[in-house]
Specification:
The chain is an alpha+beta fold and 199 residues long. It folds into two domains: 1-68; 94-197, Gyrase A, domain 2 (2-Layer Sandwich). Helices cover 57% and strands 18% of the residues. The chain is built from five helices and four strands; from the N terminus they run H-H-H-E-E-H-E-E-H.
C-alpha cells in the first residue's frame, strides 16, 4: 500500500506513536516508584514497631533483674565459686601423712629403717631419711620409693648416701640415705584423692 500522506503528517503520526509509548513507560515508571515508596514506608513502619517492642522487652527484663537483684546474686555466686576453687586448691595439696607413712613403711627394704620425713620447700615434695645396713640397701630404698606401682611418688632422687662403719649411735645401720621424692598427682594419699586410698 502506498502512503500518499504529506511528509509533515507522516512525521506527526510517527511522533504521536512515540509519545504514546513514552507515556506508557512514564506511567509504568511512576507506578514502580509508588510501589517502592510503599515498600520502604512499610519497612520503616515495621522497623519502628519492632524497635518499640524490643525496647519494651528490654525495659521489662531490666526491671525484673533489678527487682530480683540479679547483679547481687551473680556476685554471690562468683564469691561461692572462688571459695570453692580455693578449697579444692588447698585440699589438693593436703597430704594424708598417717596413710603415707604406713605405705612408705611397707616398701622400705628389710635391712633399712625410716628415720625422717619432712616437707621440702619444693611444692609437693618430701625429704625422706633412712638408715641402711649397707650401700646397696640404701640405694634400694630409692628404687622402692620411685617405683610407680606404689602410687606414692612420681620420682625419687638420692640427695646423698653416707656410710660410716664407726657409727656409734646406730652400729647396725652405718649408712644413711637422704632422698627427695615428688608426690604423684594421682596419688591416693592426697586428701583430694583420699577415696581411692580407703580400702
Amino acid at each position: 500500500m502506498i502512503n500518499l500522506l504529506p511528509p509533515d503528517v507522516k512525521n506527526n503520526y510517527r511522533y504521536a506513536r512515540r509519545n504514546v509509548a513514552l507515556r506508557k513507560w512514564m506511567i509504568a515508571f511512576v507506578v514502580a516508584l509508588i510501589g517502592l515508596g510503599a515498600l520502604a514506608t512499610y519497612g520503616l513502619l515495621s522497623m519502628r514497631q519492632s524497635e518499640a517492642v524490643y525496647t519494651k522487652q528490654i525495659a521489662t527484663t531490666n526491671a525484673y533483674f533489678k527487682k530480683e537483684n540479679f547483679s547481687g546474686t551473680q556476685a554471690e555466686v562468683q564469691d561461692i565459686s572462688n571459695s570453692f576453687k580455693l578449697v579444692v586448691k588447698v585440699l589438693g595439696q593436703e597430704v594424708l601423712f598417717s596413710q603415707i607413712l604406713k605405705q612408705i613403711a611397707t616398701i622400705i627394704p628389710a635391712n633399712a629403717n625410716l628415720t625422717g620425713l619432712t616437707i621440702a620447700q619444693t611444692q609437693g615434695a618430701l625429704d625422706i631419711t633412712a638408715n641402711a645396713t649397707d650401700y646397696k640397701t640404701a640405694t634400694q630404698v630409692q628404687v622402692n620409693l620411685a617405683d610407680p606401682r606404689n602410687k606414692i611418688f612420681s620420682k625419687a632422687d638420692i640427695i646423698n648416701i653416707s656410710c660410716n662403719s664407726n657409727n656409734l649411735t646406730n652400729p647396725r645401720y652405718p649408712c644413711t640415705v637422704n632422698i627427695r621424692a615428688l608426690l604423684a598427682s594421682n596419688t591416693p594419699y592426697l586428701f583430694i584423692n583420699s577415696k581411692a586410698a580407703t580400702p
